[in-house]
Amino acid sequence: MPRLSTGSWRRLIAAVVVIGCTVVFTLRLVDIQLVSAAGLNEDAAGKRAVPVVIPSLRGDIVDRDGEILATTDERYDVQLSPKNTRLNDGIFQRYSEAEETWVGVTASEAFAEIGEITGQSAKKIQKIVDDALEENPKSDFAYVKRSVDLSALNRLKALEIPWLTFESNHARSYPNGAVGGNLVGFSGSDGEPLAGVELSQDACLVGTDGEESYERGADGVALPGSVVVTQEAIDGGTVGLTIDRDLQWEAQQIIDSQVASVKAEWGLLTIMDAKTGELVAVAEDDSVDPGDIDGSNPDKREARSFVAPYEPGSTFKTLTAAALIDAGVAGPTTVNATPDRWQPEPNVDFRDWFSHGTIDWTLTGILLQSSNVGISMLGSKLDADSRYDSLRKFGIGEATSAGMPAEDSGMLYAASDWDRQTSYTTMFGQGLSSTIVQTASAYQAIANDGVRIPPSLVTGCTDAAGETVEPDRGKPVQAVSKRTAKEVRNMLETVGTDGLVSQYVTIPGYRIGGKTGTAQQSNGRGGYRTDFVYSFAGMFPMDDPRYVIVSSVAFPKGGDGTVAATRAFHDAAEATIRTFHIPPSTGKYKKLATGGDD
Fold this sequence. Notes:
Blueprint: H1 6-35, H2 37-48, E1 49-54, E2 61-62, E3 68-73, E4 76-80, E5 91-96, E6 101-106, H3 107-118, H4 122-135, E7 142-148, H5 150-158, E8 164-168, E9 171-173, H6 181-184, H7 196-200, H8 202-205, E10 210-215, E11 228-231, E12 238-241, H9 245-261, E13 266-273, E14 279-284, H10 304-307, H11 317-326, E15 335-338, E16 341-345, E17 348-351, E18 359-362, H12 363-369, H13 372-379, H14 384-393, H15 420-425, H16 436-447, E19 451-452, E20 458-462, E21 468-469, E22 477-478, H17 482-498, H18 502-505, E23 513-522, E24 528-540, E25 547-554, H19 561-580
Parallel strand pairs: 2-12
Antiparallel strand pairs: 1-10, 2-3, 3-9, 4-7, 4-8, 5-6, 10-11, 12-20, 13-14, 13-25, 15-18, 16-17, 19-22, 20-21, 23-24, 24-25
Helix pairs in contact: 3-4, 9-19, 11-13, 11-17, 12-17
């Protein structure tokens, strides 16, 4: 075998090395392009793709006619990277549809295009960039314009400027200020719902954020045309309320005025549809403005009509009368010899609000005169369990579920837990408590032929696809018979027409019925305050009741609380008539026998 020369050996070794390298590179290429291609592509995309959250919009809250009570303003901050405006001599490439080719766009030209949309000059935007780079030559962030609307955002995005970015800055807006603020509720600085419908219906209002991504080059600048939406944003649903925005405004003006007129601590005013149980206005004095929480009274930010029960007083004599009539124990003209003071058993003593001798008043007359003694003497003909069961049918002691985040049940102890005094005082609205919405609901049953329909505030949630889900409102309850309800309405019309406050509630052409209430309240120390909460609960028109209104004015220091409460009822009734175009009454009022000097 011939020996190879030194040169031949060198050539052979070189050939072997070349062949070996070729094999290694070929195997590596096969691995990259075939075996590991998917993983490498995904890894590379992960390094150059930038995910961007597409924020969803929180849904609207609207009144019964679709008028917006709460909405979300779509606002966006426009930002740029100062250092990247000078990449490639300040020129980036953008595809021109008109020229069907890529064209270079200078930073100055881009500044002018941006300014045309944002209302800024190109020089002003240039100064923003220069100032940022003077402070930090590597500056990657500066605001161009804060809080532009969606239209401006879309126009700016269409410019496809790679160093221009955007950040959502959605803000909750309450276009009607404090109108319905107690119901709508509000959110904290972090956007978290804290009260009202904003909180109770959050599951409906909140949306689902989407996501998009774009690819960027080694210089960090977005690559033109690389934006891909990976998940569409789904906006929150719309919550509908039963209230009428304009009537709510009027009701708030009315209760604010009456509270001020007598220098009261607080006042509430509720208007309910007698046929449906819908709350068309729930007004509270000094209502919170959801857009200015810090400027609102901290003690009056919650919906007190749902969470602040109080002893209702004589408005509940109507419920005792209804229980008596429904049980067949007494009727509207049943006569009772009524003194001004009664001691039915040891350590049980109460009296009427004015001194009088023993008078033969009918049950109607007892309501007309608002006699504690009379209603207790007749009411005691029913055993305590029967009276308790009747109150429960009227919804007392049972939390409403109208659609607010927390609705109080009030206080109604079981009859077995009543002490001897309480067993009597519950007949005239003391020794128990209810929210004003519960009181309105009880009167709604009387107005609606004895059928109590649970009160409602929320009509439903309509999602982004237009599908509406209605809440579970609970089942109607036959509180008393249709005949009983009619007889009680006749009694209430006698009280409203011929009672001491009739001059304040009368509306020409409309038959009105109702009952006053005056009640002491707990002082928080085991006793009672020396001042009172004054109320009026009524309905109209009495020939076919359409609406129930309850007003309460608490602890006045400069006037007559009863007059303030009845005037609030009157003014709210007139506003309701105007709002819903209620025709005048038909038929004639027939006064029931009241006894005494009848």
